[in-house]
Design a protein that fits this description.
Layout lengths: L1 E6 L4 E8 L3 E9 L1 H5 L6 H23 L8 E7 L3 H18 L3 E5 H12 L7 E6 L4 E7 L3 E7 L5 H11 L7 H8 L24 H16 L3 E2 L14 E2 H27 L3 E5 L6 H13 L3 E3 L3 H4 L4 H12 L18
Parallel strand pairs: 1-4, 4-5, 6-11, 9-10, 11-12
Antiparallel strand pairs: 1-2, 2-3, 6-7, 7-8
Bound molecules: 5'-O-[(R)-(carboxyoxy)(hydroxy)phosphoryl]adenosine (KG4) and zinc ion.
Zinc ion (ZN) binds next to α4.
């Protein structure tokens, strides 16, 4: 059973064809990174416009690459929540028109459920219930995932998402946008104990997160170090007679990353322990982070749990995860009419 999945929730125009929830026949993504780069972050209005330009072409390519026509599809699925409202509306309008023209059922999908489903597409050994940590530019969410795609949200961020903070810190350090990958790489050359950044809410006793405090703390540290002339910027070498207080971008990246990863791993392990779950899944763009993967694996091994993450093309925003979870929802009887609307918020239950 083949489903076309469409996602335009943020800054990627994505469409994919997936058979029976798992076999990815095509997975096409048009990234808008270059458009938003000069602004150092995503500009919602530009994102909507770019989606309009790309959507028809991306859908055609998804069908062509999968070697299917509309008549071969069983349904059309589209992310209708949560996300940037203008961006979501483009995908929803496209999906509605196509469903109407080709007489296909339409399914509105929660983007987070797509991210959670991504691991299930590739890891046959994944059991239920499991703990899923979704960490991206827009979301930080710790969820207990039960059989039948039922969820218990344990906690989420009270302010910035983890990826958003990576992007902001990269901006302070003059590293461009998006910043996650470059900070990850620089951190590998730095000392994670060089600066003790705060770990907000680490010991709050619940599963909530807060990252804006870390961000502000890094910002003040960078500004102060620059003023004092002790910051060795990216690409520079420390002088031979450098002030002993000199700090490098690598050290800041490593120390910042240590703080973020520490909180994420601590709470994920706590969640796994409290539910006696033996599987933890990682998903979303930040799941690419080498330190997060390594630390979570080590900590999970200590409690006899396994860590899973999907390949990169299923980790970041894509249409395949939307078509995947839509297959499960279709089997559960979900059908949305042409009155389907987009909404910027939307929790999972
Ligand atoms: O899932 P995604 O592609 O889009 C959203 O739904 O947001 O995630 C993008 C986020 C960005 O904030 C980016 O900086 C971050 O994922 N990211 C990383 C890494 N690669 C991408 N963060 C930390 N380490 C990485 N290696
Ligand atoms: Zn996402």
């Amino acid at each position: 059973m083949k489903i076309l999945g469409i996602d335009t929730s943020c800054d990627e125009t994505a469409a994919a064809v997936v058979a029976d929830g798992k076999a990815v026949l095509s997975n096409i993504v048009a990234s808008q990174v270059e458009t938003h780069q000069e602004y150092g972050g995503i500009v919602p209005e530009l994102a909507s416009r770019k989606h309009i330009e790309a959507i028809n072409y991306i859908v055609s390519r998804a069908l062509a690459e999968a070697d299917v026509a509309f008549k071969d599809l069983e349904a059309i699925a589209v992310t209708n929540r949560p996300g940037l409202i203008g961006a979501l509306l483009v995908g929803v309008a496209a999906a509605k028109s196509l469903a109407y023209c080709h007489g296909l059922p339409l399914l509105g999908i929660n983007h987070i459920e797509g991210h959670i489903y991504a691991n299930y597409m590739v890891h046959d050994a994944l059991t239920f219930p499991h703990i899923c940590l979704t960490v991206s530019g827009g979301h930080t969410l710790l969820v207990e995932v039960h059989e039948g795609w039922k969820y218990k949200v344990l906690g989420s961020t009270q302010d910035d998402a983890a990826g958003e903070v990576y992007d902001k810190v990269a901006k302070y350090l003059g590293l461009g946008f998006p910043g996650g990958k470059v900070i990850d790489e620089l951190a590998q050359k730095g000392n994670p104990s060089a600066i003790k950044f705060p770990r907000p809410m680490r010991n709050s006793g619940d599963y909530q997160f807060s990252f804006s405090g870390i961000k502000t703390s890094v910002r003040y540290f960078v500004e102060k170090a620059r003023r004092a002339g002790i910051l060795v910027e990216n690409g520079q070498e420390p002088a031979k007679d450098a002030n002993p207080d000199t700090v490098t971008v690598e050290d800041i990246a490593a120390s910042f990353q240590a703080a973020v990863v520490d909180v994420l791993v601590y709470k994920s392990i706590r969640a796994a322990k409290s539910t006696s779950t033996k599987a933890i899944t990682l998903t979303g763009g930040v799941a690419a982070n080498s330190q997060l993967r390594a630390s979570l694996k080590t900590a999970a091994a200590e409690i006899g749990a396994e860590v899973y993450y999907p390949p990169m093309n299923l980790c970041t925003d894509n249409g395949a995860m939307i078509a995947g979870i839509a297959y499960e929802k279709y089997k559960q009887g979900l059908r949305d009419g042409l009155s389907l609307n987009a909404t910027p918020n939307g929790t999972i239950e």
